[in-house]
Amino acid sequence: MKRLLVLSATLATLFSAFAYVPQAEGATCTGKQVSPGQNLSSVAANARAGTTFCIKDGNYAVPTPVRVQNRDRFIGMFSDGTRPSVTTTKAQHVFDANGSRGATIRGLGMSGAVGGDHCKPNCGRGIGGGTNLTINNVWSHHNQNQGIGGTGPGLLVTYSRIDHNGSPAFARFGESQSAAGIKSVNSMTVLNSRVHDNYWSGVWCDNDCDAFQVRNNTITANGKAGIHYEASSGPAVFANNVIRGNGTNAAVAGRRAGLIIYASANAEVYGNAFGSNTYYGIHVAEDDRDWTPLLGNISIYNNTMGGDAIVGCTLSGVGCL
C-alpha cells in the first residue's frame, strides 16, 4: 500500500508539472483573417455560423460580447509566450456562446467581463454559454464572475489557464453564489490545465451537473475550494491533480477545502496530491435540502494528503483508503 501511495503521488506530481504549458498556435490558419484594430465583436456578428476566425497576435478591445455561433472556431495565432488578448470594460461576456453548439475557442486570452446585482448570475463571464463547447489553450482571467460558466452539456477545457475570476458581488452569503474559475450545472471535463487564485471556487459542478471529470490539473490558491462538487449525481472523477493551498479567502462563509463533495453521489477521488489547504484536504458533507442526492458511492483512495485531513469518511456511502 505504501508503494502505491508513493507511486500515485509521483504520478500526480509528474502529470501536474505538464498540466499547463502555453502552446504556440503557429502562423497559419485558414479562414477569416482578423487583425488588431478590427472590432472582433463586429466581425463575428457579421459572419455566418461555422466560420473559422484566424485571430492574429495583438490586443482586441471589445465594447460588446463576441458572438459565438454553431461550429464557429476562434483560433488565436501566436508564436511566442504571448497570445491574442480580447478584453472589455463594458461587456457582460467577452465571448457569448449562448445558443451555440459545437464551437471551439483556442489560443486566446479573455478578460474584463463585468456584472453585478442587476444581472447576476448570467454575466461577468470570460466565456459564457455553449453546448459541446471546446476550450483549448486559453487564458481566461480577471472576469467579475467566472472565467468560463453558464455552459450547456459537453464542455471540454484543455491546456488552459483560468485565474483571478470572481468578486464579492457574486459570492455574498445568503444570496445566489456563482463566482468561480469554471462553473456549470451541466456535464464538463477539465484536463491538463491550471486553475488558480479565483475568488470563490476553482472548478465547480452544481445542481446535478451530470458527468464531471477533473484530471491532471494544477488547482491552487482558490478562495473557497479547488474543486467543488455539489448537489449532483455524477458520475464524477477527480484524478491525478495537484490540489494545494486552496481556501485562502477568509471572507468566504462556510466550508473551505481542497476538494468539497457536498450532497453528491458517484465520485471517485484518486491519485491526487493535496497539501496546505485551509481546514481540510477533502471535505465530504451531507445536506438537509430535500432535493439533493443522498451521499453514496463516494470512493477516495491512493491520494497523497500532504498533512491535510479528510472529513466525512465515516458517513454512509463514503469509503476512504
UniProtKB/TrEMBL annotation:
**Right handed beta helix domain mapped to chain residues:** 121-257
The answer to whether UniProt assigns keyword Signal to this entry is yes
Does the keyword Signal belong to this entry? yes
Highest taxon of source: Bacteria
| The entry's keywords | Signal
- Gene3D superfamilies linked to this entry: Single-stranded right-handed beta-helix, Pectin lyase-like
Give the range the annotation lists for the signal sequence: 1-19
In terms of InterPro entries, this protein maps to: Beta_helix, PbH1, Pectin_lyas_fold, Pectin_lyase_fold/virulence
Record protein name field: Right handed beta helix domain-containing protein
